[in-house]
Specification:
Length: 483
């Protein structure tokens, strides 16, 4: 029976997992292979149980033994099996086989697919909860080019059998969505959690490709993962492609810079360049093992009302244009950001902050939800091998600078601040460009929207042309403003 949930405006019926599998089975044209490694044949089991599977399932297999898996799909250079590269190999191999073995003359209307997953569930010691890659390569028209959806999951449940069951449900939701919701990828994304509590499994990377998804921006899909609370953070590189967080954070030194970047200004770049230089001079920081992240948090944006997704994504695209790796997170408090990094690395970490940001860090109101209050948060923030690089602020009227030496926090926080300051956890950024201290993103934004002159010199080279050509951030020419 369908499950009924209450929506804002209507009751929404969610088809059961059995009814989803049965609908696929009763479609006489959908036909393909299931290859599942690492957690049993959990997805295909749902199709067998639903009935009518003989017309859908060409083959199902589980090459558990590594030697057998290598013989079928090839040897991985890095010796790892739970990787996207392995998933792609599995999908390619199975599609090639079905194309070779099933003649189009006899089956002209078949829509071929290959579903695969390669996962590791929780270990016996329950120290590592497990993760995996899941994907489908499929046709929506006979003889047409293939489309592909691949995603990375992280398990949160504490029993392998529970993880296996959740994986099977996710697999059915993916196959069903691939065939019946491909024209609405945002909905397809949400429906992946049908009959799954969000605390059971995390999807932290997803990619759509193929002719049906040619207009899909995978960065926007990443934003949806965070927006829909499917994950806490996503990342994408300078090339615009989604990146698995673990792949770039694992055992790395990390320097993070948070901002709204609306738009990115010369101040942001100066803060990055100077803090990065200081970070590389720290002990045990290898430049070849260091990642810099420009982080944008959705948490603060929600306070401003509904998120303008297009506007938000262009902020990230401009950073990518400048060659930076972008992180979109759901973290409001900095200690949560550091906790997230700490799950991947024990190397040195740095946060580059402006004065106002650091003052907010010492504001107790952000930690009322913690039983230990601000002390608990600071234990999580500064317990790790972390240092804050503070970018100064200049008073526009007096011309005086505020840095770590004269920064004022709430009187109750004064001694706590001194403790971290004089233990070397907070240091001033050196060699900053004084001419940039009068640049503020909100002022640049107002100039862009009002058609004023001079803002082009306040942002990095090349960014102004993109803003003008794409008419970003409400850009108006002076002529448009007059009219």
């Amino acid at each position: 029976m369908p499950e009924t949930i209450s929506g804002d405006k209507e009751l929404i019926e969610i088809p059961s997992i059995r009814s989803k599998a049965l609908r696929i089975n009763l479609n006489v044209n959908i036909y393909g292979t299931f290859s599942e490694i690492g957690a049993g044949q959990e997805t295909v089991r749902n199709f067998f149980r639903a009935g009518g599977a003989s017309g859908t399932i060409a083959k199902t297999m589980s090459a558990y033994d590594k030697d057998v898996s290598d013989a079928i799909y090839g040897v991985e250079d890095d010796g790892r099996y739970v990787t996207k590269h392995r998933l792609v190999k599995m999908l390619s191999h199975e599609i090639n086989l079905i194309e070779e073995r099933i003649g189009r003359e006899k089956h002209p209307d078949k829509l071929f697919f290959a579903f695969a997953n390669t996962v590791s569930t929780i270990d016996f010691a329950k120290k590592y909860k497990g993760h995996g890659w899941v994907g489908i390569r499929y046709q929506v028209e006979a003889k047409a080019e293939y489309n592909e959806i691949s995603l990375h999951i992280r398990f949160n449940e504490n029993e392998a059998t529970l993880q296996q069951n959740t994986l099977g449900i996710l697999g059915v939701n993916l196959i069903y969505g691939a065939y019946y919701k491909y024209d609405e990828p945002k909905k397809l994304l949400r429906y992946l959690y049908d009959h799954i509590d969000k605390d059971k499994i995390e999807i932290d990377t997803i990619n759509f490709s193929g002719p049906r998804f040619k207009n899909v921006d995978n960065r926007l899909m990443s934003l949806q993962l965070v927006k829909n609370a499917m994950t806490e953070a996503v990342m994408f590189g300078p090339d615009g492609n989604n990146i698995l967080p673990a792949s770039i954070l694992y055992k790395k030194n990390i320097l993070a810079l948070r901002g709204s970047y609306r738009p990115v200004t010369m101040v942001n770049i100066d803060m990055y360049e100077k803090s990065y230089e200081m970070f590389l001079n720290e002990k045990r920081v290898d430049p070849n093992n260091t990642i810099v992240l420009f982080e944008i948090t959705l948490s603060n944006l929600r306070a401003e009302g509904e998120i303008d997704e297009e506007d938000f994504m262009y902020r990230a695209k401009l950073l990518c244009y400048l060659g930076h790796t972008v992180m979109i997170s759901n973290f409001q408090e900095y200690y949560r950001l550091v906790e997230y990094f700490s799950a991947y690395t024990k190397k040195r970490m740095g946060l580059a902050l402006g004065v106002n940001n650091l003052i907010d860090v010492f504001d107790e109101k952000y930690y009322r939800h913690l039983s230990g209050g601000i002390l608990e948060a600071f234990g999580k923030l500064f317990f790790k091998d972390l240092k804050v690089y503070l970018y100064p602020m200049r008073d526009q009227e007096s011309g005086e600078y505020t840095n770590s030496e004269n920064l004022k926090v709430h009187p109750r926080m004064k001694e706590l601040y001194k403790f971290f300051k004089y233990n070397g956890k907070v240091v001033d950024i050196e060699g900053f460009n004084k001419e940039h201290l009068n640049i503020f993103s909100k002022n640049v934004l107002a100039m862009i929207q009002n058609g004023e002159k001079g803002w082009e010199d306040m942002i990095p080279t090349g960014v102004a042309d993109i803003i003008k050509n794409k008419q970003l951030f409400g850009y108006k020419t002076l002529k448009e403003k007059i009219n």
